[in-house]
Amino acid sequence: MQDKNIRKPVNPAAGKAPPSASELTVATYNIHACIGNDQRFDPERTVSVLLELDADVIALQEVEHHNMDGHDMLDYLANETGLTAIAGPTLLRATRRYGNALLTRLPVSLVNRIDLSSGGREPRGALEVMLDWDGGTLQLVATHLGLMPWERRLQVQQLISLFEPEIADTAVLMGDLNEWFLWGRPLRWLHAHFQAIPIRATWPAKRPVFALDRIWVDPRAQLESLEVHTSPLARMASDHLPLKGYLRRSDHRNHGP
């Protein structure tokens, strides 16, 4: 049975063909429900930033799944970019679905939605997907963590438990971690599991100071570089700037040491 939360674009030609080579671009972007720093709701501007990114896989946070006069925002983003969309709503109401999502050019082989919610706090979650890349398997987990330190400690422990040796050739964790403390336990645990990554400030978008958005890759050698997307549109479209990672598959296909 087809997953109703996987949405194929009406016009897939809008996006380029899935990558077949060993190079891959991933990105994470908190779109702030398409409300920019000018307080305008502007989905077209958000799409323009996504097209500027030209990434093969994009993790999205703060996606309103129903917020366009009865039309689905995620369907709109998929259609305008030509990418396949995977919904991961965390807030479910009769008239509103809100949370995480993923846009991808890669074929999807598995989708798992993980509840990371803690009692009394805003519901949080993660999307775990298995993607086919360059003849191998990419395990990608996209998330948006809580605002309280104790929440993030619990959530990071749950996330790390998803990454088991030999489950995939490449593993990626990315999203808005909301982690302000550079030496806090969540970041130390993640660096210990994935190895350290460069710090790139993404928030607030106009003058970024904090590295709230992160991308980790295992094996670490497959992450060639990280960069913040700082176009004029991106500085206005959301309170976060997008973070991009450039991956290259090595000849060694075994995941792990």
Outline the low-pLDDT stretches: 252-257
Count of distinct strands? 12
Name the overall outline.
globular
* Beta fraction: 25-35%
The figure for the number of domains is 1
Q: How do the strands line up in the largest sheet?
A: 1-4-5-3-2-12-11
The major β-sheet equals: 7 strands, mixed
Provide a count of the helices.
Answer: 5
**What is the top-level CATH class?**
Alpha Beta
Q: What is the CA-CA span between the terminal residues?
A: 37 Å
Query: What portion of residues is helical?
Result: 10-25%
So, CATH architecture?
A: 4-Layer Sandwich
Describe this structure as you would to a colleague.
The chain is an alpha+beta fold. It has one domain (6-248): Deoxyribonuclease I, Chain A, CATH 3.60.10.10. Helix content is 19%, strand content 33%. The chain has helices spanning 43-53, 73-81, 149-160, 185-194, 232-237; strands at 6-7, 23-30, 57-64, 84-92, 97-104, 108-115, 125-133, 136-144, 170-176, 213-218, 223-228, 243-248. A 7-stranded mixed β-sheet has the order 1-4-5-3-2-12-11, covered by helices on one side. A 5-stranded mixed β-sheet has the order 6-7-8-9-10, covered by helices on one side. Strand 8, helix 3 and strand 9 form a beta-alpha-beta unit. Helix 1 (43-53) crosses helix 2 and helix 3 (149-160) runs parallel beside helix 4. The chain starts with 5 loop residues before the first strand and ends in a 9-residue tail after the last strand. Residues 27-240 form the Endonuclease/exonuclease/phosphatase domain.
